[in-house]
Design goal:
- The strands form three sheets. The protein has an eight-stranded parallel barrel, surrounded by four helices. A three-stranded antiparallel sheet has the order 11-12-13, with helices on one face.
- 37% of the residues lie in helices and 16% in strands.
- With 428 residues, it is α/β, with parallel strands linked by helices.
- It has helices at 6-26, 38-43, 59-66, 91-103, 135-155, 188-205, 221-233, 247-250, 253-266, 301-315, 371-382, 387-398; strands at residues 30-34, 71-76, 107-112, 162-165, 172-173, 176-177, 210-215, 240-245, 271-277, 321-327, 402-407, 410-415, 418-421.
- It has two domains: 1-27 and 401-428, no CATH class; 30-383, Glycosidases (TIM Barrel, Alpha-Beta Barrel).
- It has twelve helices and 13 strands.
- Helix 10 (301-315) runs parallel beside helix 11.
């Protein structure tokens, strides 16, 4: 029988992976990343390379078809204020990226910020057009804006599968302050009005979409029980508890376990997704973090890899957790590959948490060492890709012995006593 080449064997594995994808969705497992800056990088001539230094013609289709990712998230601002070059996702930008996601056959998660700039636990500002309104007109504006924008997404072939009403909103939404504990200054009546407005508009227009409420205190069980109980008791219609988990802000997995156990116990009827995660591959920050987790996961490519490996193994004990999205895998620094002294750039900062090198290159950004294993094995493994079954299928077809082994922290295929990465590159 004719022996298959490593590339053909890889293609066979990939084909098996693609064929298997619908069943993963049926079992409710979603994996991928927030790729909100991808269009901006493309506009700034920032190509991406695979592990063989070959250009990737379209990152979305490559991640979907070659790597097994099935879900991509995109943020949306009302009128991006451009104070940060990363704040560029207006309606047409988000529609364009959303349509590419849908055309690739992947799931599209739309992240409404309901603001003109970043929103998180410490930034709850409303868009400029609504900032002086009281709760009732804000609720009307949220409802009308959600309805109008979703109609545009649907009209242009970019209907979201998941709709996130607000971004990390445990402490407030469109300028209305609350806390995940009793606080006499909170306006829960106003907060709940605007929340119901966004959720109701989504449900009316997209009854089959899953609505996500996203918070960023994953390790605090009491906060999550207080907050999500408020929503449920006051008829906020949502499907998924969305969490951010970054070890350097939220602690080790032992800390995360306390919060996740509480959510699992208190809300067994709700699905859970980790809609943001990530870890440093270099330059551990000297400030702006809450935990030094480098004792377990150094700020190195292998440390980044092992952090995600441990997180995925940890989540296996929580069947309620059905989604895992990596934050800005496409991050490639400021993105101007021609002259970094000439603006505007894509980003005003380097996160040093992406999966490609931020260093400028006319040929393209190279994958971080170990990121190939993360892209091709770790993240797809979350949705249940059984590599051993795929390899056995390839081995049977090829009539040669093929097996999976670990090499330098990455999953490799051993065939005919030769190691190959999941990308197909031979390991010398």
């Amino acid at each position: 029988m004719k022996t298959l080449s490593a590339k053909k064997m890889l293609a066979m594995l990939t084909l098996c992976l693609i064929v298997s994808m619908p069943s993963f969705a049926q079992h409710g497992k979603y994996v991928g990343g927030d790729i909100s800056l991808l269009l901006a990088y493309e506009q700034h001539n920032s190509p991406y390379l695979d592990a063989d230094n070959k250009p990737i013609s379209d990152l979305i289709t490559w991640l979907k078809n070659d790597c097994g990712w099935n879900t991509f998230r995109v943020r949306l601002f009302v009128n991006p204020d451009k104070s940060d070059p990363s704040v560029c996702q207006d309606l047409q930008y988000a529609i364009q990226l959303g349509k590419r996601i849908k055309d690739a056959g992947a799931y599209f998660m739309l992240d409404y910020h309901y603001s003109d700039t970043w929103v998180d636990a410490t930034h709850i500002q409303a868009p400029a057009a609504w900032k002086d309104c009281t709760a009732d007109p804000k609720a009307d504006s949220v409802y009308a804006y959600t309805l109008r924008t979703l109609q545009e997404f649907i009209k242009q072939g970019a209907s979201p599968d998941f709709v996130q009403i607000g971004n990390e909103i445990m402490y407030g939404f469109v300028g209305i302050q609350v806390h995940p504990y009793n606080n006499s200054n909170d306006d829960w009546d106003g907060y709940l009005k605007v929340m119901r407005a966004g959720c109701n508009a989504t449900r009316e227009l997209l009854p089959n979409a899953q609505i996500i409420i996203h918070t960023d205190r994953p390790s605090n069980g009491d906060y999550n029980k207080f907050y999500y109980s408020k929503l449920i008791e006051n008829n906020v219609d949502f499907d998924v508890i969305g969490l951010s988990y970054y070890p350097f802000w939220h602690g080790f997995l032992s800390d995360f376990k306390k919060g996740l156990d509480a959510i699992k116990s208190q809300f067994p009827q709700k699905k859970i997704q980790i809609v943001e995660t990530g870890y440093y591959f270099q330059y551990w920050p000297n400030s702006g973090i809450n935990y030094n987790t480098t004792t377990q996961w150094p700020a190195t490519p292998l440390g980044q890899y092992n952090c995600m490996k441990d997180l995925i193994a940890f989540l296996a004990d929580y069947p309620q957790v059905e989604g895992l999205l990596y934050w800005e895998p496409e991050d490639a620094g400021n993105g101007d590959d021609t002259d970094w002294n000439v603006g505007p750039t894509v980003s005003g900062y380097w996160t040093n948490r992406g999966l490609w090198s931020p260093e400028a290159s006319k040929t393209g950004h190279k994958p971080i060492k170990c990121s190939a294993g993360m892209v091709h094995y770790l993240l797809p493994n979350f949705i249940g890709v059984d590599l051993s079954a795929l390899e056995n299928n390839a081995a049977e077809t090829d009539n040669k012995h093929t097996k999976k082994i670990m090499y330098n922290g990455q999953i490799m295929i051993k065939k005919n006593n030769q190691l190959y990465s999941i990308l197909g590159a031979e390991i010398k």
